[in-house]
């Protein structure tokens, strides 16, 4: 991908044969850079565009965590679990291990619903509670759990945290 910057807009040119995955990967990279330039996440919804690009088009469920430091600056976004068309097994022990490895202070949990319906299920609410409690024990705050479908639904903004 070739990037040309001007004073008003950044222009992108994809050379040769380009697959849909190439375009989506480039878009994810652009959104990730935008998030990183922003420096920190002022509200959990700041990450919606990035998470929608990363998870929105998948045909199976994936569970990701956006790890943040104590000033809510982005440390990393990790895919921790991959599932099937209607679920993914998420293990709190592995989430805690990942948090400790990156020395995170806060987290935004995210997963997708391939059906496109982003309403959090009872299982989503239960998992969020389990992860919140497990991470709390090691001093990591869960700021939100975003469910990605045809739209992004913030469990924090719905009062489900």
TrEMBL record:
CDD domains reported in the protein's UniProt record: MPN_DUF2466 (cd08071)
Alphabetized UniProt keyword annotations: Hydrolase, Metal-binding, Metalloprotease, Protease, Zinc
One Pfam family linked to the record: RadC
Gene3D superfamilies referenced in this protein's UniProt entry, alphabetically: Cytidine Deaminase, domain 2
Superkingdom of origin organism: Bacteria
Ranges of residues in domain MPN: 40-161
Protein name: RadC family protein
